[in-house]
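Appendix B, record 7
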Amino acid sequence: MTISDEEFSKVINLITQRTGNQLRDSYIMGLRRYIERKPAFDIKNESDVEDIINEATVNETYFFREEKQFDALKDYFFPEWKKAHGLVPLKIWSAASSTGEEIYSIAAFAKYLGMNVELSASDINTAVLKKLESGYFMPKTGRHFDGDEYRNIISCYLKPDGSYEFSPEFSRSIKTMQVNLYDFAFAGKVFNHPAEQNLIFIRNVFIYFDRETRGRILKGIAERALATDGYLFVSISEVASFDAEIIPSCLEKIRVGGIYCFHKKK
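Structure tokens (predicted):
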């Protein structure tokens, strides 16, 4: 099919209105090619719109990405939780989970270290959530390891062809949800009991939002999802994008080991 410049502009505007996502020029070109390969597309059809939003989201991820943050889990956050709370489950939310390598890394790591955890994962993209729930991952997701410890942990799930597969029981231990972070920034609700997540990972997603939207999303998550004395992790490369004026008053940026993260003050 063909789509006019005017029609395509409406599609891009709709994506931004729905998600807050500021699409890069290179991605806009790819999205247009994707639409034109389709036999038909109707901007008024919700199924077609969901398909385009799925296509517009970036889903580059792999196991144990940013290992320094996992080092901090092992050396500080997990021991401190055990010391203060014993066997009480530590609640962890992967808020931009993509295909799931992040939350599966956390799950495998927690199991390896004997941590009792309750895990949740969410994404706006319904297609990647299905991949997450399958527990099956292509070989490329295990390509980056700086330390042998992380390679050895994930190798327990390695298949002869280089792919990774987790048991259905393992996959069912992760609660999955479709969540639009842009909606959540204004008045959204994810959990039945708000402000209960002890650790929240929302990494490599803020780069796709403008400054104002970054602040709104950070504020919404901090106030309505993160527990008091909880910690929020963004990508190491994203930390500098949060200046003091958009960090909500309930959060403080702290340094733990070799990383920076946000702590919700008591």
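Remarks on this record: The radius of gyration is 19 Å. Strands lie at 90-94, 117-123, 136-137, 164-165, 174-178, 197-201, 226-233, 251-256, 259-264.
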